[in-house]
Amino acid sequence: MIPPTVAAPPRFTVSRRRLRLLGLTADDGIRWFFGGNALIAVIVLTLITLFLFREGAGFFGQNRSNLEIYRRAGLEYVDFIRAQTDDHTALTRYLSDLRVRWMTWLLEQERHSLEEANARLEDFDRFADRFAGAVDPLRELMSGLADHASGIKAKYQLTQDRRVEQAQLAAAGRTAEAAGIEISAIDFERELEPLRESLPTYRQLSRDLAGELTALLAEAPAPPTPALRQRMDRFAELTREYVAGFPAVEHRLETWDSAQPVPAHRAFTSFLFGRQWLTASSWQDWYGIVPLFVGSLLVAALALLLAVPLGVGAAIYVSQLASSREQRLIKPCIEFISAIPSVVLGFFGIVILGETLRQLSQVSWLSWLPGFPYSERLNILTAGSLLALVAVPTIFTLAEDALNNVPRGFKEASLALGASQLQTVLKIIVPASLSGIVSAVLLGFGRVIGETMIVLLCAGNRIEIPDFTRGVAVVTEPVHTMTGIIAQEMGEVVRDSIHYRALFMVGLVLFLLALVINYAAQKIMRRYRLSTG
Q1: Average pLDDT over residues 188-201
Q2: Which end of the chain has fewer beta carbons closer than 10 Å to its terminal beta carbon, N or C?
């Protein structure tokens, strides 16, 4: 029997003969093979880009129509008043926070019982109740106008549904009259008359509210400590600013024109700079990417903050300082992390890490840490910590390659001049490989920004812009991300609806962001190779 090792050369020889018959060499065949793979990658990338553009491009037209009916049905008019009542609600929450602080001081510093503390706060409670109830007449007016505007929008949507039915019947060769479908045009001007007629009532209620709030500020109780008095003074300042904005709201109502067309750029700006992502709403759907974009960046930034020191530090130690035995132990362990499915890490975050961090935040001697204690176990901190674990293998592998590619002569020359090994690493090797390390960090960022399952399971999925006034403590707040919203909502949307196309636009933004990150990493890596080549 001829061993397989002997039979292999004739097969290779036959393949070479075939290539010669085609006028090609073996090198040409290899070049074509790998060039074909690169061509396939370019084709796939192009198809993905075209697919995202095709599915998402119609969003802006639909979004403009969405904004137009928002204006024509009077929802925009009502929201001017709603914003005024919402601002009052925010001031009421400020008062509630002040009461909690006052109560805490009475219980902990003055050693009052709960009954005594509540008795001391009776004057404040009466003040807070009067402040909270002052806006009720205006809120009742707004509620009635909201019902009317919702009715106008419902009529418009019913008309649009009937137009679709009419088009379907026409395509089937039937007429709308035969099917009993009647379509009547909506007279928006006549429908909006009750809203415009409510303006005098609004003026009176707004002035009454301004007068009552101003009078209440003069009767505000004085807190017992400087810190509490400072917060009360801040509350009075915010209330005066709130009252000073009433004329601007009245001016918007007076000058509002339902027939004014929505500019085309609003369809773009409301998506790129919108601060709300609100779907399936009985009032108005909003598709603003800002809270999702901010959530993605915060989680990715925290992940890099944890992963870069660990990944780069491990790469420096393994490539420059560790013995061969330590290298054989450390490298497989770090690289094995990338083999763990992200959904498994997500379950670990839900069941163990999130709850562990929350319990740790309740420890009294850790209360000095920003944001501690906190109650939400799924938040930026939980998701960012797990994403850091995902990013470490990528950063470690690429940073180690960059460190190993530094010419050996650099290290030998430094040691020959009397520098220690640590000085050589920190002042020669690391600066010489800095471009490669930066490229590794960027690719690690691209890895975590595109992660889905971990952020979907562990970030909390709250679609709000976090409160940055809390400083570093913002990491204890829940957020939603671009990848998470796509995974969560894509299975529930109707094909070709505005919600469907909005998710594709989010995917397009994410895709372009990943391309930019990878392009920057490749440019830095290319410059690094040229500088070390």
Answers
A1: 93
A2: N
Q: Helix, strand, or coil here: 275? A: coil
What proportions of the chain, in percent to the nearest 5, are helix, strand and coil?
Answer: 75, 0, 20
513 three-state secondary structure? helix
Q: Which of 278, 194, 269, 210 has its CA nearest to residue 244?
A: 210
Q: Burial of 19 by CB count in 10 Å (0-12 exposed, 13-18 middle, 19+ buried)?
A: middle
d(CA 29, CA 36): 10
**CA atoms 49, 51, 54, 60: torsion sign:** negative
Count of residues making up the chain:
533
Taking the C-alpha atoms of residue 172 and residue 167, their distance in angstroms, rounded to an integer, is 9
Q: Are residues 83 and 228 in the same domain?
A: yes
Cis status, amide bond into 370, omega within 30 of 0: no
Encoded tokens for 294: 């901010």
pLDDT in tens, 499-527: 999 999 999 999 889 888 888 877 877 77
Q: Are strands 277-278 and 286-287 parallel, antiparallel or unpaired?
A: antiparallel
Same domain, 402 and 306: yes
* Of residues 406, 391, 412, 465, the one with CA closest to residue 436: 406
* Tens-place pLDDT, residues 147-167: 999 999 998 888 887 777 777
453 contacts 422 by C-beta, under 8 angstroms:
no
Q: Residue 316 is part of a domain; what is its CATH number?
A: 1.10.3720.10
- Rounded Cα gap, residues 295 and 380, in angstroms: 8
What is the distance between the alpha carbons of residues 134 and 83, in angstroms, rounded to a whole number? 16
pLDDT at 431: 87
Do 90 and 245 form a contact (C-beta atoms < 8 A)? no
CA–CA separation, 394 vs 307, rounded Å? 10
Show which of 218, 243, 264 is a domain's final residue.
264
Pair 131, 92: CB distance under 8 Å = yes
pLDDT of residue 531: 58
Work out the number of other CB atoms within 10 angstroms of the CB of residue 328: 10
Please report the DSSP string for 73-103 in residue order. Answer: TTHHHHHHHHHHHHHHHHHHHHHHHHHHHHH
Find tokens 């299975």 and name the residue.
Answer: 491
How much is the pLDDT for 444?
A: 92
Task: Give residue 47's pLDDT.
Answer: 87
Looking at residue 195, its pLDDT comes to 93
pLDDT in tens, 332-368: 999 888 889 999 999 999 999 999 999 999 888 888 8
426 and 310 within one domain: yes
Residue 33 has pLDDT above 70, yes or no: no
Tokens 């990493």, located at residue: 521
Measured CA to CA, the distance from residue 442 to residue 519 in angstroms comes to 10
Choose among 94, 90, 85: nearest CA to 144.
85
Q: For position 41, what pLDDT does the model report? A: 76
User: Where in 68-216 does DSSP place strands (E)?
Assistant: none
b/e code 288-310 from CB counts within 10 Å (16+ = b): bbebbbbbbbbbbbbbbebbbeb
Q: How many CB atoms lie within 10 A of CB 334?
A: 19
pLDDT exceeding 70 applies to what percent of the chain?
89
